[in-house]
Design goal:
alpha+beta, 3 helices, 34% helix, 6-stranded mixed beta sheet, globular, 6 strands
Length: 161
């Protein structure tokens, strides 16, 4: 009979001779599988976060408020404020900016307890009618859901001085 890694063998007598001295215990493959699974989970989580970031920054640069707002959970916060309180500022920015360029460069990823954490740096460049422009950069931290699709639970960023 085949059992899943880490599953104890069935109780009762066996008809095969014991090979305990030459065959690894069931726990050894389970540990290796668990470590491999954890690495695979981390790699998949990172790939999902990278896809999320690409789609998130694209929606921002396209100034698509509806698409952009879908990247947030209903109870999401940005710099400690409920998303609904900051969406009007995004609407105004998306309306008034002629162009937006926004990038996020991840520094660290964490995947634990059903959440994804991303810490990194952002850069933004905006141009407006009449030739005015603004640029900025700073630290950015995301707490994301470990769901499909990935969504922002909280976002915190600060501009460099």
């Amino acid at each position: 009979a085949v059992t899943a890694p880490g599953t104890p063998p069935p109780a009762g007598p066996t008809t095969q001779p014991s090979r305990a001295a030459t065959t690894p215990s069931p726990e050894k493959p389970a540990v290796a599988t668990t470590a491999a699974t954890t690495r695979n989970d981390q790699q998949l989580a990172r790939k999902r976060v990278d896809i999320f970031l690409n789609n998130y920054t694209t929606a921002y640069e396209q100034k698509n408020l509806m698409a952009f707002s879908r990247f947030f959970t209903v109870n999401a916060t940005e710099n400690g404020k409920p998303l609904n309180d900051v969406l009007p500022a995004y609407a105004e920015l998306f309306h008034s900016a002629r162009t937006l360029r926004f990038t996020v460069s991840p520094n660290t990823y964490e995947h634990n307890q059903g959440q994804l954490h991303l810490r990194g740096r952002f850069t933004i460049a905006m141009s407006f009618e009449g030739g005015a422009s603004r640029t900025g950069q700073g630290d950015i931290n995301f707490r994301l859901t470990d769901t499909d699709p990935v969504q922002i639970q909280s976002l915190h960023y600060t501009f460099d001085q």
